[in-house]
Fold these 2 entries.
Entry 1:
Amino acid sequence: MSQILQQLVNGISLGAIYALIALGYTMIYGVLRFINFAHGDVFMVGAFMGYYASTWVSKIAPIGTVPAAILVFLISMTICAVLGATIEFLAYRPLRSRPKLTVLITAIGVSLFLEYLGQLPAVFGPDPRGFPAIISSKPIIQSTLLTLNVVQVVVIGVSLMLMFVLRIVVMRTKIGTAMRAVSFNQQAASLMGINISMIITFTFAVGSALAAAGGILYASQYPSIDPLMGIMPGLKAFVAAVLGGIGNIPGAALGGFIIGIVETFVAGTFLSTYRDAIVFAILILILIFKPSGLLGQKEIEKV
Amino acid sequence: MRSTVFLVALSCCGIALASCNKTTSPAGDTIPIGEYASLTGNTATFGQSVHSGAVLAIDEINTSGGVIGKKINLITEDDQSKTEDAAAAVHKLIDRDQVIALLGEVASGRSKAGGPIAQSAHVPMISPASTNEDVTKIGDYIFRICFVDSYQGQSMARFALNSLGKKRAALLEDMKQDYSVGLAKSFRETFAKSGGQIVSEQSYASGDKDFHAQLTSIRSFNPDVIFVPGYYNEVGLIVRQARELGLTCPILGGDGWDSPELTKGNESAFNDTYFSNHFATEDPDPVVQEFVKKYKAKNDGKTPDAMAALGYDAARILADAITRAGTTEHQKLRDAIAATKDFPGVTGMITIDKDRNAQKPLTILRIVDGKFHFAQRIGANGEALTPFNPNGKNSMAPASTAPTSAAPATPAPASTPAGK
Amino acid sequence: MRSNYVLLIALAIVLVVSQGVGSLNHYYLQILMYIGFNIILATSLNLINGFTGQFSLGHAGFMGIGAYSAAIISTYLTTHGFGADGAMGSVVLMVSLIVAGFVAALAGLAVGYPSLRLKGDYLAIVTLGFNEIIRVIIQNVDFKIDGVDYVGGARGFTVPKLTTFAWTFSIVVVVVWVIENLINSTYGRGFLAVRDDEVAAEAMGVNTTKFKVRAFVIGAFFAGIGGGLFGHFIQYINPDSFTFLKSIEIVVMVILGGMGSTPGVIIAAIVLTILPEALREIDQYRMIVYSLLLIILMIMRPQGLFGTESMKRRAKRRAENKPATAASA
């Protein structure tokens, strides 16, 4: 079947974006132990910021060139990092010592707020918009066996690069060590002189910046953006994070690729109408046999 | 802590009271008309378009003195694209605002939730764009001014077979939209019955962005035409991805394609695609041109889409019926709407038939370099009103003067230009 | 014994009030009915999330199963000689609702089993997954019996109108009464024990497995009935009414009301049903105001809007809220 190779490529490029969003979920979960429901909407804001940034950047550098693309990414990622840190400061920080379910509700509130604010005609408006071609969509390979274009390669490349950078930051730097300490034991970390609030703000900023990058990549590959575009990718990325073992960074990446590939393969068969159901069924099966996710560590319950 | 609870409770009561006090103006000097639309939620883009068309029509009517000596007061309720919210909105409009008629909804599902309420209260309801057959079967107070799903699907199937001369079709439908499922169903039946073959059937769900998987699968069946009865948000991506994968055959669709946003950014991908629609902005008919001009002036130069045109027509047909009835009494107003005949709407000559559906022609447009060109006009009974125009260039026949003689469709030469 | 009188008196009040609602503005009646459905859904979810401490994000799935099962039964009966009015309508509704409850309870059983192995967020995502699976399946089902459309996939399903005020609120009373009595019975303490400390409960001889599955089955049963009532009121159901967003709406009611407090959850269901209606005047801005209010309320009253727990339970909650350091990665 000539299809298999093509579907695999399609699946990997979709999975790379899921992985990027899933990383944000998993980092925030690792540090704060709660599901940031608004993450998918930060992803949406990231795509819109990329849209506005590119009109602005086009005055300096022509759209489609590498410097312009880097500039668009940097602007959008910075704005979203600030947005993420602000959301944490205003909506989550006052509830830090409260049960996590309480914070979940404020997260849902933030999510609804961003979605409905975006739908106002004065803000983004409800109409889907075409995303400028900041990354060329020219084909690299075009044959009946395989069609591969620049966007797909860039999406996979940029995602892998960002994951690699994140891995270095978390494992090799001082702030990364502090992040891991906070995620391991918050109280003990604060006794060691780690500024917990600063670490949490940093985590939100990095997670949101990754979501923004995901948003631009997603919008480049599927150039139609609207204020509700974050819901489904957000949900799928969340599934990916849980599948890989939430709180585990390589797990989130693995989960993202698995969900992307499974989804693409199912969508290409006669079962395409059951696609979402099959993705969730696989998730449920894996969790039943491995309750803490593929790479998650089993939590030892202390009595 | 007690005091905060008290404050919160108080503010909630305050909001509730504030909204209760805001009663609608007394029924003496204005005529209240209700509109329920999806101004937010996943079909917000259509709801807002219809709304802007309706507002344009009402403003125009009010500036020219209103109807039967009174001004119209349009009361709009957002239903968040949710079924249960649509029902609540209709109840609110009928029971609290005492509207004399309703405009809405775009989506058939929400019209089916609001329709029974309007029917049992005997308030006439005109849906601008609910194309599902069952909507007007709710009762004798429910009307529509757009054509129905089956008519569109059948027309496109015949167009593919007779005008384009294609025999192997692939279907890609949106499982989440009853509109898309309905169009696909009638296309499938007509196409198979009339000698064609459906070689592959795939589906997606609204909100999806990646269609490579379905298209890769379709490609392996080697169809010579693809029918994608979806909404433009997804269709824009589908056509682009299909062309990227090397699917060069013609792609057909329905009125859900109509939007200036459809081809943005990938104009060339849309060459050799066709869709059925209610109207065309380049139609030289003065009714259409006047509408396009006024709409642009009011909406910051935005080009109106079919939804805006339907919203505009729905509001004008209602106003016309009020004038003819000479009263806002429900029964007489209903009869006046039912008697609508040859109303010169932006979306064609509209006649309401005995099933309260609109009898009107359908226009098939061909997309060339991102521009919509007239290709063929199909009459209400499926007959071709004009011969197929394969070049699709500058030959827009005015809608109101379409020849009524059922000229047989000229089979297109097999060498219909293949897309790039 | 005393609680039985409470039940009878409450039912009597519902019947008396129902005689008067006919004259009520239909719009207000509609809101009242929505409040009724939401109370049924929120109190039944409260049994799973609030009392038993499981985290379900799939309640709308059970509601959807109930709505569709009830609609299939009632459509079959009304097209096969049974009337939809008066006493006959009540019989049809009752049969449909009972079936809806049992079918949803079966689904609850299926969802309850994974809950034995999964906790917290993992369980949340699995229940959410079940919700989406149910929705996708409904979207793909479409069949005809004797020329009448059933289920209808994405096109939706037109349902006869059978739900009345008296039926809805009688069921509200029964659901609230059953859950309150269950929780306050000796047997029902098991649910609370599972929530408060699973290991200790197990050590004391509570079969935690049974209690978790039971919470799901009972919660799903009532959600199914709530869905059946909803469908026969709104007369048109489609899969989009039962997405995970609806589940989240119900979860918000439970948490805002104060987890594990039945009066709190009832008040939250009322407030959260009225709030969007009260905000109608501001059109497109209402969901923005709604979401802001949600955030502000949670920051001001993190234990729930009207969390009025009894002293016994408050002590337990304090113990539960000990710093989350025990969970090590």
Note: Chain B has two domains: 30-147+286-346, 149-277+361-401.
Entry 2:
Amino acid sequence: MPRQLIKGNEALVKGAILGGCRAFYGYPITPANELTEAAAYYLPQAGGVFVQAESEVAAINMVFGAAAAGVRAMTASSGPGISLMSEGISYLAGAELPCVVVNIMRGGPGLGNIAPEQGDYFQAVKGGGHGNYRCLVLAPATAQEMCDLAKLAFELADRYRNPVMIVADGYTGQMMEPVDFYSTAAAAPRRPEWAVCGTAETRKNLITSIYLQPDELERHVRKLAAKYREAEERETRWENYRTEDADLIFVGYGIVARVLKSVVELLRERGIRAGLLRPVTLYPFPAREIRRLVPQAALFFVVEMSTGQMVEDVRLAVEGERPVEFYGRCGGNVPSVEEVYEHVVNWIDGRAAEAVREVASHA
Amino acid sequence: MPEIAVPAHMKPIHAKAECLYDTYFRKGENPHQTHYCPGCGHGVALKLLAEAIDELGIADRVIVVSPVGCSVFLYYYFDTGNVQVAHGRAPAAATGLKRANPEAIVIAYQGDGDLAAIGSAEILHAANRGEPITCIFVNNAIYGMTGGQMAPTTPLGGRTTTTPFGRAAHNDGYPLHVSEVLAALDGPAYIERVALGNVKQILGARRAIRKALETQMKGLGFSLVEVLSPCPTIWKMDPVEAQRRVREEMTKLYPLGVKCDRTAERQPLPAPAPAPPLEELPRILQIPEEEPAAAWAKAEGAVDCRIRVAGFGGQGVLLLGQLLAEAGMDYGLEVSWLPSYGPEMRSGTSNCHVRLSSKPIDSPLVSQPHVLIALNEPSLRKFVGAVQPGGVVLYNGTEIPADARRGDVAMYALPFFEIADREGSAKAGNLVALGALLEAVPLLPAEVVDRAMARVIRSEKWLELDRRALKRGREALRALKNEPAKEPCHA
């Protein structure tokens, strides 16, 4: 099939439009601007709507309006903008509206910088906004996945009537790689029966997130929780890379996972049986797959571009049965293959020396 | 019970509007009465809005957007499409709804805290875009549902729970005149302030609300009616006294009248273009149809080439890298191109990582390149140490600085930009460098690179110049080279 060399950010927009997206409300922020600019260019030609909002707060509420009308709608931003959108994302989840929110993560907290980081894992996976809700969270690692997961995100958002987040880092968004856009057919826009469209057929419909009576709200929140449990059963996605015989298992996502594949190869050249588990969905998290690997694993090594966020979910999954080590870079620094390799080798050598000392002291 | 026919002359004078539910089934307790206090202006404003909807026959098309505050429960009452939204965000949500349903009549019904405080940005920009929605702005100069805090519209001296000593300008600022502020914009089609202080005023409000909806129906743009409204409960007045206050005090602070009316000169907004058929999407999205590499030879043998291109912003560093990646893709290789991006500002450095490989590319980061193209001295010094032994360095200059030389890599210095300048433009220096690279490292066939150039460089004039520049680069490198090319990239 024909391939196009294209930036991840632009591939995501094309994938979204092929996935039926017809509304994009955005606000400029580096490093997510290519998304907004591509949407401004392509969507009006594709029969869709693009508006540059006055703020991220307005953008997510415009998405709320479009989603309430049953249109596949999205927005994209980076950390500081996602913080502003968090209110709206909570309302979307509460009102059971599907939408896609893209976070091309940059360095934080505060203004931080515009270099790549993975410091928004907690924000994406554990909440961000208020109340008992979750976002389904997808983490692409290639330009091809930026396209494919954008399509998937809209399917999941509709299936669960819930916001879906795509989190990538600045590099995955800015990087150009060949993309095949024909892996699936284009999805036709549709209006679900619950939408509010200003028509006689939809006149009785109500979109709301308010439930004044405690019993009513509890019923609603438990319904949301049941959806999330179902998503955990059905939607968890991950990639195994050389884990079949691995006893040192790396866990990393996005750009880090690509670095880790090279590290796995280098370690294997040295005779260390290393492998990689790459979560593709950060929520639902592939905890069960990690559990499956526990018996064969001697050690889990989590690498992130943060001071340690996803590592908490790995530790929860491992339940203390194996050591879980962590290596992180932040501030916009992307770990190099050589650096991670060296760190892991030093760690293993240190452990070996420690073991020798221990044996000696017991003797 | 048998139906009793009511003669026309006996139709009740006071009846509920048809677009209001008879029983407020969504309300739960007391489904026959609203949640509004006795004497509250909301009841009147709602009734006027509902009657206008009935009269215009648009109930099927209406979407009422209820935000937060005393406006929150409009969906209890209106037998229309209903969307409940966050505090202050009704104009933004209404924008999304209207853009999705251009035929719908979208009404944002907001109070003063909602619209004039927390939602001030959303209303200002919706008005400024001329968003074809209608806002009913109920101004009672107080936060009602939260129990009587200061609103942006509270008069100076007004005692509220958060201005217990009276609103003071030095601490709390001045009452906000929303309609006048919005009327100063070019976007709105119709803005009027009305009041509910007596029957005459109420009749005026009724006319204004109807006109605002008609403005939307005609597609003329943004319309807003500010309704000065009593809040007897929080004002701690009886309904009659509260109405007197609206009539005699509020209208002094907030003068009634049309603040802007461009409905006569405005042309209706153009209808949105029909959506193209799905089959058109690949063309619209500029997705290539044919297999680009079909006509070309594929790379043979294992390739793994890691290239770093570095220089100043404006030297064409990124394009040079992109051309390598494009040609590599056409040659059937896996490729990645990763820019190190920075803020768009003066004197930034620019560099990119390019990988061409016969296997899927794991890390796109090139920390130890086989090939370094350094377009300035700082870039040479920064990256030369990382080049793999046996690799190639191409440097923009007449000679490699003595302290940046390495014996274990092939190093070539050529003044790329001077060579390009002699061809017509120094801007093509990056293509001279590419030509030199292709001569130093026989990585990609010339015709594959030329085809990629023709695809990426859209201007005929530049393509022609760039082709010459590439050729000069090849020639210059060939002249410089006194030993056969090393092939560091072919494992």
Note: Residues 49 and 209 of chain B are 6 Å apart (CA to CA).
